[in-house]
Design a protein that fits this description.
4-stranded parallel sheet; two-stranded antiparallel sheet
């Protein structure tokens, strides 16, 4: 990361293989348990209230899925996490405009840092009204930062006046 100007960045948890958190993430990513993502979003919202009091975001911006993947999964897990955060904090839940313009070639989970970046670099764009205020970009798991960076560039390209922050459920350092 570091190549996108951020006001704030946070992850609620550290992702560990074979952990309880990994099991919960797999439930909402692969087993259709949207409710788990919403509940984890609520917990993340409580953390943001405690540790990010000085920041006031104008809205939450979930990282979008490609339409084909979202139809297959039945929902966007980042939107479900944002829904949980919104229930706790009361800020506008979803800002529309960021779109996934191409379907990723397979899962990111087994890719190298360079492969991840190349897979998503031009995969996001802003469509619609210009983003305004201070936007909090939401995702599930931060690994290399390629997705967040690509999304951040798309948001900032749409408006040089918008401020951008990032919050992920987990960091897979």
């Amino acid at each position: 990361m570091g190549r996108v100007p951020l006001q704030f960045a946070s992850a609620g948890y550290i992702f560990g293989q074979h952990s309880g958190l990994q099991s919960l993430i797999h439930l909402f990513k692969y087993d259709g348990r949207r409710d788990v993502a919403v509940q984890l979003g609520r917990l993340l919202g409580l953390q943001l209230q405690q540790h990010a009091r000085s920041h006031r975001w104008t809205g939450l911006l979930p990282v979008p899925l490609h339409a084909v993947k979202e139809r297959s999964r039945g929902y966007n897990q980042a939107e479900a996490i944002a829904e949980g955060i919104s229930e706790i904090d009361g800020m506008p839940q979803l800002i529309k405009g960021l779109v996934r313009t191409n379907e990723a070639a397979g899962s990111q989970t087994k890719r190298s840092r360079v492969d991840r970046w190349e897979n998503v670099a031009a995969g996001y764009a802003w469509r619609g009204d210009k983003p305004e205020g201070h936007v909090l970009l939401i995702d599930d798991v931060l690994t290399t930062g390629a997705t967040i960076e690509a999304c951040g560039h798309a948001v900032l390209k749409a408006s040089s006046e918008v401020k951008l922050s990032v919050c992920c459920l987990a960091w897979a350092g």
